[in-house]
Amino acid sequence: MDQETTPVLDAIERYRRDDHYTFALPGHRLGRGIDDRTAAVLGRDAFEADVIMAKEAASDAEALLAEAVGARQAVFTTCGSSISIHTAMLTVTGPGKKILVDRNVHKSVVASLILAGAEPVWLRPRWDAENQIAHPASADDVAAALREHRDLSAALMITPTEYGTGADVEGIADLCHRYGIPLLVDEAWGAHFPFHPAMPTAAIKAGADLVVQSLHKADGGLCQASVILVGGHLVDPVDLRLRLDLITTTSPSALLYGSIDGFRRRMVQEGRELLEAAIKRTNDLRKHLAGVPRLQVIDESIIGHDSVAEWDPMKLCVDVSGLGLTGYQARDWLEERHRLTAQLGDSRRLIFSLTYSDDDAAFERLRGALDDLAENPPQPDRSAPRIPPLQELDLEQAMNPRDAYFAETEQVSDPVGRIAAEMISPYPPGVPAILPGERFDDAVVTYLRSGLEAGMILPDASDPKLETFRVVTREAERPLR
Ligand SMILES: Cc1ncc(COP(=O)(O)O)c(C=O)c1O
Predict the structure, then answer these.
(1) Are residues 288 and 401 in the same domain?
(2) 387 C-alpha vs ligand 1 centroid, how far in Å?
(3) What's the CA-to-centroid distance between 85 and ligand 1, angstroms?
(4) Which ligand 1 atom is nearest residue 82's CA?
(5) In angstroms, rounded to a whole number, what is the distance separating the alpha carbons of residues 302 and 266?
(6) Which residues does a 6 A CB cutoff place in the pocket of ligand 1?
(7) What pairing do the DSSP bridges indicate for beta strands 152-158 and 98-102?
């Protein structure tokens, strides 16, 4: 195929050039209907590109992306990786079926379990006590789970994590295939991985059967642009299309599709050079920070720790606890003092997601701000939340997530011992600390309440102040079989 072409961008251009006028949708008529205020902020160009697009344009662009990354098929979606994950999970599992799932998942996976009515068999992440972060489960953990649960419909891994540590996807895909089940990989941060050898091995090349990627996270797509890649022959692509059709919009955005189309062409043409330069800039900055007193960075030596098989060099993790600060406070300070936004601030670290779009000036600005932080740290204004050992957060799955979610519920101030009917996910990255069907223990309640005090963002809690929690009423509790 000719990777120079851009079928979606061409279709948008053709539509405009042909003096087309629509009496269908969208009603703004290429922006004629918007006012100057809207145009001043959003730009008339965006509306001029917001056209209804021929289906073939999208399928040609999907075929080009599939070829470029070595997939059997690619499917574009327009509601972020969340809808791609729902689609992928509804394709491989369903009511009453079991699925092996990394517990370190994004909340969209939990929502998919609720939608599908599937039963999770949790794979516990590996706790790295030295670095105080969780890594994806190892191939050995997956092998043990596959031996124990012979009735699994599929397995799902999230890799790399928000800290950039990745699983042995190749080994895990091999294991899943030996048991005849497909492997889904949430690779939301890795749409560029196929385009440079120093990036983590792209899951689609490592043998995964379904791979979900957000194009807007570390790549060049507009927000909500996402793709599902299909590999191997364990997943029926027709099933996948039918499931997507069930839950997605009937009016996909040409703007979003066009941004995926343009990103693919750019990566094929110049991805290697762009990523090479980006890795060099990041490594230079990392090396500099390693020499700054009281800051610590994670580097490639993390590979081999516990289950870490891969590492994303574009994630810059800076430990600020040596300054007496939490990552939450350091994140707020960076925003206020330097107008810089980190991807994540946690109890002790700042995590920056660096991309090929960050130029020398952006790197210089970040370096200056972190030097300033190390030389002139603010007075600590909050205590770090108590992070319990990971084992204490291994909550009992007492009820099926869907049953708990739809059960009769009540709000209680002391939820310890009760079954959750809600998800509470520190954001970012949006990994639920507790999810429907899990039993609250003391550790998770203390972690969430002290985290909130320290600045943790909990957007999905039923009570944003965490004075109460939503639990299943005692009468409605239905123990897992
Ligand atoms: C690992 C992971 N998977 C899935 C998602 C959902 O992606 P989206 O926001 O594109 O729906 C996120 C979002 O933060 C994520 O970090």
Answers:
(1) no
(2) 23
(3) 9
(4) 11
(5) 31
(6) 80-82, 106, 108, 158, 186, 188, 214, 226, 429-430
(7) parallel
Q: Tell me the three state secondary structure of residue 303.
A: coil
Structural domain containing residue 335: 272-375
Q: Pick from 227, 248, 266: which residue ends a domain?
A: 266
Can you tell me which residue has the tokens 């939340």? Answer: 385
Domain boundary among 345, 375, 405: 375
pLDDT by residue, tens only, the chain of 481 residues: 999 999 999 999 999 899 888 999 999 999 999 999 999 999 999 999 999 887 778 999 999 999 999 999 999 999 999 999 999 999 999 999 999 999 988 999 999 999 999 999 999 888 888 888 889 999 999 999 999 999 999 999 999 999 999 999 999 999 999 999 999 999 999 999 999 999 999 999 999 999 999 999 999 999 999 999 999 999 999 999 999 999 999 999 999 999 999 999 999 999 999 999 999 999 999 999 999 999 999 999 999 988 899 999 999 999 999 999 999 999 999 999 999 999 999 889 999 999 999 999 999 999 999 999 999 999 998 887 777 777 777 899 999 999 999 999 999 999 999 999 999 988 767 789 999 999 999 999 999 999 898 888 898 999 999 999 999 999 999 888 6
Residues 32 and 63 in one domain: yes
CA 147 to chain centre: 28
pTM for the structure as a whole: 0.95
Torsion on CA atoms 91, 97, 103, 106, rounded to nearest 10: 30
* 232 in the same domain as 92: yes
Best residue among 106, 186, 187 to mutate for probing ligand 1's pocket (most ligand atoms within 8 Å of CB) is 106
